[in-house]
What does this fold into?
Amino acid sequence: MSTGQVEAPGITIVHDVPSRMRDGVVLRADVYRPEGEGPWPTLLTRSPYDKRTSEMLTPFDPLRAARAGFMVVMQDTRGRFASDGEWLPFRHERQDGYDSVEWAARLPGSNGRVGTFGDSYLGSTQWMAAVERPPSLAAISPALTWREPLDGLLGRGGALEWGLVLPWNLQTGAGHIVKHAASPEEARRRLDALIEDYDRLPSAGYWDLPVHDPAVLRRYGVPDLGTVSMLTNPDVADWSRVEGRHERVTVPALNTAAWHDIFLQGSIDNYVAMAALGRSARLVVGPWHHVEPFSDPVGARCFGLRGHRRGAPSHAHGDMIDEQLTWFRRHLDPQAAKLAAEVDEPPVRIFVMGRNVWRDEQTWPLARAHAERWHLHGDGTLAPTAPPTDAPASAFAYDPADPVPTLGGNTVMSPAFPPGAFDQRRVEERADVLVFTSEPLERELEVTGRVRVVLHAQSSAPSTDWVARLCDVHPDGRSFNLCDGIVRVADAADQLQRVEIDLWSTSNAFLPGHRLRVHVTSSNFPRWDRNLNTGDQRGTQFETARQLVRHDADHPSWIELPVVG
It folds into this structure.
């Protein structure tokens, strides 16, 4: 494939520059060079989503970076768009990442020091390259990405990330179909059918059973993100696992996370692991969700102009792109390297929702946060007071044919299920959702850190799920979701047991007059696959289960909140 060169004011862009991987496969990248002779610090991103789409060019604008004096390399990963080879998600990213970093460092005009950037899958490609330790890699800036694939990417709490896998496979599968079709006519026919299935996910595809062989994917034979294939091949999860490998990463890492992102906790945990190893690491957490726009509204809540990821000068050096460019310059430009030792910059910067302000911190978790237990009471109240000995239990029926619908949250799903914070009152009206609400607060209560719910619970089914959610209830009655989680009890669910649900992390100031609210239920569909209540998740049969949550002194249930102040 021939390369093409175009000019932008002060910038030269060369398209589809080839690089040969160690096994001979050729990948291609667009290279943005600043005006002048260089040498320039070099920034690399590796993406399966087409290096020239607006979605790729917006979160980290390569023209803006080039104008700031960086050479920018945007590469299609193996088997995607202009790159050769077979597309198999995550399988080759460690070796290809190493080879691509070393190739980028030797491009004409590079100063030999490479930094990597990008969100989501592009964040994972950074970690996988860093684990392989390419000598020319000098810094990474992974954003909105994971640590453990079974905790946010492929699954959560033992359930499958069902809402993500089907649309992701179909979207990436469209490019796969175009690239491998025998003719344009065949490609058009198959794409038309795929688009129809994509649009019908809310009413059809998401409901496919069995989950290990969904018909909507079988029809197209497109490569799987890994959620389905890991059910028969556990090694698939290891292809993108950072957990257990942080010690191999010695370069500085700027981690960007978002309170409503599907990979929130993984992004935070990657920072925590690097900081614990004494590595140079930073963490920035904003109020966004996973996809554009990274600005108001986030679901149905507005956090103000300062909460935007781009465009607002909300940080020391401008917006988040400016922050990354300043950080990269310190680590990639020998002339500026001395600045890194001179800058006393707090390692953690978080956006506190409710107050809607940015705040710098020295640690995560916050050293001054203390755990408070707020108990779920049988009368539907939520309070720090312990339950009485004879408190009644709460019960509901969970029917997999009529699961609780997903309404916002840390999601990446079909467009029918947008992410972010939404008023949950229509969910709270359901008979299969237990609701526990505090009295209006007399003074502000800040919750910043990791949240968990502990239940003493029992089901009539041998296996079932437990879902919990924390909400901020405004004085006008609107109940906005903050964080949630799920646990799949694989066996012995019909015995009374202690169930702990990880709701991940948040930072929210509950203002005076607001109330805290906790939901307890057994489904959040189609975000997570339905528990069939039979003990056989590979089947197609399901049963209604009767669920019981205890609240007495011997079997208390509570939410544990990291309270600041």
